[in-house]
Every structure is written in structure tokens, then in C-alpha cells.
Amino acid sequence: MVNPYDVERSFPDYFLEHRRLTVEQQGTYRCGELPVWTVYCPAGLLGNSTIIEGPDGLIVYDTGVNLDAGEVIAAEIAKVSDKPVKAIFYSHHHTDHYNGASAIVDPAAVAAGEVDVYAWQNFRAEMADEFGEILQRQAMGAGYYGGAFLSPDDRHHHGIGTLPIGGAPGFIPPTKMLSGDATLQIAGLEVRVFYTGGEAISEFGLYLPEFDMIAIADEFFTGIPNMHTIRGSKPRVPDNYIGALNTVLEIRPEWLVGSHIRPIQGKDDIAEHVGKYVDATKYLWDQSVRLINKGYTPVELQHALKDLPEELWDAPYTVPMYGTPFTSVPEFFTGWVSWFTGDSTDMLPSPPAHKAKRLAELMGGVDAVLDAAKADHAAGDHQLAAELAQIALRADPDNEDARLVKAAALRARGYQELNPIARSWYLTGALELEGAMDPGQVLAAYGAMMSVDKSVVDTVRGWRYQLDADRAKGVDLAIGIRDADSGAEVTVRVRNRVLHVQDGIGDGNDVVIEATSAQLAEPDGPTVVSGDPAAWSRFRELLDTDWTTFYMHMR
Questions:
Q1: CA-to-CA distance for 323 and 245, rounded, in angstroms?
Q2: Cis peptide leading into 309, omega within 30 of 0?
């Protein structure tokens, strides 16, 4: 639908400059005369891969965001070396670091022990935690913050590359788990692993003394760190970013490579850029803590620390092109203090629709609220216009004019925004309100890309979050389950509207079944080993397994 309140497309000045300095530079970069190459933004997508050639083979540090990216990386590897890949390192559990692996190495070679795949010991647990139980919400968030469903004219880089619209996964499970800093001998090279844990709690870097080089993954970006991602994440620890970067400063390498930067050469240059990055990170964290202790709430923190001081600006690194202050600092409050501001009014607030109806009534009705929103939009206060339109829309959810006013205000606010992630969310929100974007498409595309293969035990443990408590009222049921592939056994018990999972199969089960992961999803897939087959059917009816689409802005 045509929005009569719409605005002209625009970009902040530095936005296009950052794209020129980063994403438009996609390609393969060699580190001087060293046998090390970074495939930067393969196919324009976020998620670099670094190829390190040793006397006896290749080491690959990260494998791209999907199979398409992995195929680009594999083609680039073939151009620079015909040696076999001996090891892959997954720097951490985020999708853009592991999903191109099967295009680069044959999974059969990994299974045969010809290629080692390294990850930190908590890799699978963190993957399941972040992209397992809350996969649907994560997938929706990825679609909104990545801008993948924007029009071609509005699509833009992600600050560090472009997020794909889905794509086939090429994940190969890791075969060697790292539990602490270690020195490894791989492909004839000494590789020193050091834990970092900033961008992800499963993250680590590599130091190669022979090349005087550090691979730092996502602890150093072309953009300040995303210490909280609005797609949804657990709190990230600023001191872990700082610790990782201080390791770089202590080693003072000649080369710095990473999963979202082009190679940087020169001990002094690296120290200068990394030092400024440390200072920017510390500034946001330290000043947030100082102000929290003075009683600042999340919104007050956002406005107090909205911009970095100019002396911390070091383009293209310490700029708000990946993380941005106003999306990071409120999480410091909610993550370390609470969601509760301290004002008793906020402890159990009125339902939004109820509050909106009363506010609209006090303001003279929905039409009066919309007139005020239109006036603020015309005057350039797009944020307040969107907030007023939101009141009108919640008070009258079927009001098309309220949707269009809010959409226009969000789009205008988005065009003002330098941060690509926030810009994407504003602009995608406008499309949602105009009916030009189907959340189901977002869920389908990113759900497939971000989903991971699960064992039977992983799947069963996730059922606790799918149990419909209303359906489970009065149910007391026990199911023994054996993994047909691995032989692992667990028992599921439903009682008091809660699902419990215990290792092993004991006595007293209503039914015992055997199944693969795929068979668990089929009503008649599992084999009944003993007990009442109807108990399995009754249990399945208790699970809410539907992928439900929802709206972010029409609520």
C-alpha cells in the first residue's frame, strides 16, 4: 500500500563512507608475503574466513555464514594452495562462523579423522542455548535487524557485511573441544589458543608465533562491539572484550586478522587501533556503571551515553556501525541490575492495550492522538510521532491510519540512523505496519539457516520449553526414550504441568520408545519397545511445537 505520510530516502553522511571502506572491499587479502589469506565478506556476506598455510597443510579459521559463502571460500582456497585442509577452527558458536564448513571439507574426511574441527568446550551448549530453545524469537530478530526483507533500494550492509536471506547450512560438528589456553602443533605450525569470551562466551583467538600474527574473531570489528544485540541475546561481558584486546596489546603482533576485518599490519598501527577500541569499550561500560550507581534507569542511560566522545572515534573501527551505544547501555542495567527500574509503578504495569485506550481517551480520542502524531512527524520529531501513533494503534488495532502514521515515523527515524542494525529494524518495522512484509517469511528463512542438528537427547531436553501447561493440567506421565543411533537413554516425566528429563530409563514408565531425531518428529516414527503406545500419543498432544508467526510492531 502507498503510505501518504512517507518520506524521502536518505543516508547519514558516514553511512555510505563506511560501506565504501568495508563491504565494498570484499575479496581475498594476503598478509604481505606470508602464506595467510583472509576471504573478506565472501559473496558480500558477513563472516570472514582466514586460511593459514603450513608446511604440511592448511588451517581454516571460520567457514562463513552458509553454504554459498563456504563455496566462495573453498574456491578462494583452491586459488592459493593445493595442500589439504588439516584443521578448522570455529572461533565461536554464531552462525556466520561455522555454516560453510561442508563446502570446504568433506564431512566424511572429518568423520575419518583426516580433518580436525576445533571449538571451545561449551560450543554446542551455547549454540543450543542461543539458537535452540529460543530459535523462533532469534530467527525473527535476525530478519528484522539484518534488513534482508527491505527493498533493493533500502537494503544495506550490516556494518560488517550483508546478512543473507536464509541459505542452506553446512555445519560439521566439532571433533576436538578446547578447555583452556593451549599450544597445538598443526600442519607443521605452532598454534597458541587463548580464550576470549567477549562476543560469545564460547569464543577464542589464535596466536601464530612464526608469523607474528593473531586471529581475533569477533572481539575487534569495523564498528564498536555489539555488547548487546537487539535480535536477542544473553548479557555479554564487556571485560571479556577488554581482556581479549589486552592480550593483543601485550603480544604486539605484526599482523592482526579477524572474522570481520581485513588484515591489519604494523605493531604500532595495531596497538593504536586496538588501544582506542579498548578505550571505547571501557568508556561505555565504566560510565554506565557510574551512572547506574547514581540511579540512572535504562532510558536515562541511553540518552546520557548516546554518542561516543569524538576523541574515541577511530574510523572504521570505533564507530557505531555494528554495536551502538544506545542499544548496548540499557542492557548493562537489565543484565547486571534487573529489568526493574526501582519505581514501584513499573513493577506490574498495566497491560499496554488497556493503558493505551485510557491515554487516548484522556487525549481526546484516537483521532486527536493521530493528529498530534502527524504534527510531530511533519515537524521532524519522528520518535515522538511513532510513540503517539503506537498509543493510537494499541487503542484501536484495526486503525489503518494509525499503522501508516507509525510506519512513516519509523521509516523517517530509520533514514536518520547511522547504525545499520537499528536502521534495519526501523525500516523493517515500517514494512510490517504497511503489510508489505510477512513475518512468516522471516521465520522460515532464518529458522532454517540458524537451526542446528540435534541429537535425540538434545531434542528431548528442549521439550520442557514446548510443554503447554494448560494441556498438561492433571497429567502424570513417564516416557522412556532410547536414541536409535547412539543408544543414549533418557526418561521424560510430566507432573504438575512441568516436564522433567533424567538420564537413563528406569522402571515405572508408561511407555518406552526408540527413535532417531527425525523419527521423534513423526507421530508414528518411534518404535514402541514396551508399554502402552497410546501413552506416546497422549504425550505428543501436550507439546506446543507450532512455529507461530508474530508481529513486532502491531501488538
A1: 17
A2: no
